Amino acid sequence: MHQPPVTALAATDPDIADLVEREARRQHDKIRLIASENYVSQAVLEATGTVLTNKYSEGYAGKRYYEGQQFIDPVETLAVERAKALFGVDHANVQPYSGSPANLAVYLATVNPGDAVMGMALPAGGHLTHGWSVSATGKWFTPVQYGVRRDTGRVDLDEVRDLAKRHRPRLIFCGGTAIPRTIDFPAFAEIAAEVDAVLVADIAHIAGLVAGGAHPSPVGHARIISTTTHKTLRGPRGAMLMSDEEFAKPLDKAVFPGLQGGPHNHTTAAIAVALKEAAQPAFRDYAHTVVANAKALADALVERGFDLVSGGTDNHLILVDLTSKSIAGKPAAKALDAAGIELNYNTVPFDPRKPFDPSGIRLGTAAITTRGLTPAHMPHLAGWIDRAITTDNPADHEKIATEIRELLTSFPMPGWA
Fold first, then answer.
1. In the chain, where are the structural domains located?
2. 14-35+284-408, what's its fold?
3. Who contacts 211 (Cβ-Cβ below 8 Å, separation ≥6)?
4. Side-chain-facing half-sphere of 411: CA atoms under 13 Å
5. Is 325 an annotated catalytic residue?
6. Which CATH architecture has domain 47-278?
7. What are residue 198's DSSP bridge partners?
8. Is residue 60 annotated as part of the catalytic site, yes or no?
9. Which of 25, 161, 168, 237 is catalytic?
10. Quaternary structure per UniProt (predicted)?
11. Is 398 among the annotated ligand-binding positions?
């Protein structure tokens, strides 16, 4: 049963209530390896579902356009102060609705239409909003895209420097959505300084690892930091912008009134709760275990003949090129889903296949670590993955799914009892 129970929802709309219950059970019964997903705590879940959703609060604490903010202002102030303390930044804005609007606010605060902006190409592991062609950021600005080396699968910082000197971008993004290695923030900062560009660190995937000391921090190197609040940070679906004092007002104005109206106060409260949780000693243990699990799973996959982009991982994320396994990413992901293992098919660097039918799959260990799985479980998980993609027999997939359900009964899930 979903926790807290959805009894009123079931009475009012049994169809939606049934779907919620089914999704809760699905999340409980499957090994969830989508790198952008996690399980929030019961406290975060409860905060997300409070009466704070009833309140409109355009503006910022102490400077609202609506009355009745006596309790909303302290909620947002708590979230801001906790973000500043956790990450050690001068300024934080907790209002962006999600990661893409947060990144759009960065553009609005720092550059003009047509300016050159630089980011990692999407097929190499970057994000749509880092100037990729189909995104508004690739249409409204002049994109300069860097990639990774074919021989190492890692960012070629010499190429980044050469491109930056040639195109003189006003903005440089580092970070992305499928980067399994440590981001060299000092090196990017050095390049940005050479061409007088603003460095933005998009740490949406690794924010929880940064907060827990399991990945180097961009603070002191990147002038602006963008992040979502879920993924490894284990909060609700939202985003934050952090910066040094110089960019505080431009970023705030870009978020509101530049791009958004009223913030989602229930989400802000849940962000505040997640930030408090991330400041606890137990979260540091969690962050380091996330990385330990990813490394153990990567090693176990390599032992079974899987080809990993860059050869392994330094964080929560593993990118697998399935070419040598004679199966594409999409059918592999569907087979794994049938076998009780949830992940996503993904483009790999220099992929000859199309994005909707790519060569790779992307895995992440944040959610399974929240459930309590440890490095000792990773060889067994690698075995399930190998078995699932080497058979097209539904009975074999169901057998694996049953084994997984039996394992997960020993690992509680927040939000399900």
1. 14-35+284-408, 47-278
2. Aspartate Aminotransferase, domain 1 (3.90.1150)
3. 86, 87, 233, 278, 279, 283, 287
4. 21
5. no
6. 3-Layer(aba) Sandwich (3.40)
7. 171
8. no
9. 237
10. Homodimer.
11. no
